[in-house]
Amino acid sequence: MSKVASEYAFEPVMQEFLQEANPWAQNAIAERLLEAAERGMWSAPKAETLESLRDLYLNSETMLEARGETPRSI
User: Fold this and answer.
1) Residue 29, φ and ψ in degrees, nearest 5
2) What is the DSSP annotation of 4-70?
3) What is the pTM of this model?
């Protein structure tokens, strides 16, 4: 899961691409990774990684709201 987070959630080029092409995908990636950690499907995620995912999720919600779209709840 850490590799998924680093390559799809935190990699700057991917973040920029998703923000422009499909912000819902960015929102869903962060949401699914947080859910995996919460459900014990991700063994020992680092606290900093979870905090960064929460920040990414909240930022994606803000971006979707600015676009006039309603984000899902986590």
Assistant:
1) -60, -50
2) HIIIIIS-HHHHHHHHHH-HHHHHHHHHHHHHHHHTT-SSS--HHHHHHHHHHHHHHHHHHHHTT--
3) 0.85
